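notes to self, project folder thing:

trying the whole complex as one job this time. last attempt i did each chain seperately and stitching them together was a nightmare. four parts in total, labels are on each line so i dont mix them up again. if this works i'll redo the older ones the same way
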Amino acid sequence: MKRRAICTDPSWAGRADCVHCAIRNRVLFATLTVDELNDALLEIDDLVYRSGAVIYRHGEAGSALFTIRRGMVKLMGELPDGNQRIVRLLKIGDVVGLEVAIGSPYKHTAITIGETELCRIPAPVIERLDISHPKLARQLMVRWQNSLDNADRALVEFSTGTAEVRVARLLLHLSSLSKDGTCVDIGRQDMGSMLGITIETASRVMADFRRRGAVGETGRGETCHCNVDLLKRIASPD
Amino acid sequence: MKRRAICTDPSWAGRADCVHCAIRNRVLFATLTVDELNDALLEIDDLVYRSGAVIYRHGEAGSALFTIRRGMVKLMGELPDGNQRIVRLLKIGDVVGLEVAIGSPYKHTAITIGETELCRIPAPVIERLDISHPKLARQLMVRWQNSLDNADRALVEFSTGTAEVRVARLLLHLSSLSKDGTCVDIGRQDMGSMLGITIETASRVMADFRRRGAVGETGRGETCHCNVDLLKRIASPD
DNA sequence: CGTAAATTTGAATGGATTCAAACGTGGTGG
DNA sequence: CCACCACGTTTGAATCCATTCAAATTTACG
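result (full assembly):
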């Protein structure tokens, strides 16, 4: 189930437009002017999904793409034999479901990690803006390249080396998303699915990291503190 | 070293334009008209690289992108600690170095597999066409999505499961590029680098496949014949 | 408070790596 | 033409890392 909300950001709660959005300079419409935006505003919803909610499923005809305002989204790739793997983790400012911009059905199943707030942008809005505002096309291309960089990173960093090295690299990646060393604890299941290892191995490595002081508790159960220097040394042994 | 050639395709040898190109409907300029193409023709070179040649290196400022007319290209991703991994294999009709279209430096090191013929398209040509012909922008987006699909596939199919399963899936992928069951033999080194396994393991699996009749010789040393049905059964065990 | 789900830990197994050596092939120079 | 070297491939044996299966423990939540 998903809950409808007209913007839950405290700084501009109650407004239904992107103009005053706190993360506007980081999202798809960064290059559009206020006037240009007004066309699209009426059709853009701000939605809050609970943790573990399915945004869309692999193969569905894509009717909209999304921008992440808060939280995180995992894209799941599925094998013919059933078991699946996390292909990418998307964070604040990232676009979910970019493929609908070229009329393609969704290529993954998108699931939220933690309570997540999304702006839902219907495909026709993109089409319309695309024709009238060539700058948006460039923004879309930048997004595609960004996704591609992430995908390549998942291959090179998160699918190569020992389990220990992979976990270290993932923790470094997650902690780089926030200023301080804190990073969201994404659960052993997701960790394993992202790194191509089992949940038991992920758990063992994390337990070992805790013993060695590479990670520590932050107090809140959802986050953990990372010893960046030590993790870096583990991630690329000289 | 690379050798300059004004189109080596026998069917239109000697011509210096794309209009009569045998694979034009599969490449970037498929949607452009003859008139629209004429602007760009003078600056587009047709180049033949020998096997194992470096087209460009990771981090270089991208001055051009390329279309593959013949042969194959591997994109190498590099880890900070030196060792590298094949991120993607590009085939006929694919674009190499798409990132220069948004002004980015090259994200990989691109190396040819077998003698390979490329059309070199300078970045300014893309920029110019992009402004005057909005259809090209869409073609570029389609290419990006294509690369993304390949990247995701590398993760889900080629980096998950046992070595046996991965090799089977790679052979199926390679054989799907040609009509019959033949597929280019990409060498154990590349095979391992693509699947995240060692050359010894790749060699052992291939030897086993030969014994079981999953692959056979074609006579020429560069290609091998695949038993698609058997490989499919190995690739996804029920 | 009690049940379901996620995490942790242990012990045995298995698959891939590592290190080593043998093999085949293509090219170079005597 | 053949010896010789370089290079990629193949095969073997020992080791190591991750998985599997199982059980215990903790956490989340109605």
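what i see at first glance: Residues 134-156 of chain A form the longest helix (23 residues).
need to look closer tmrw
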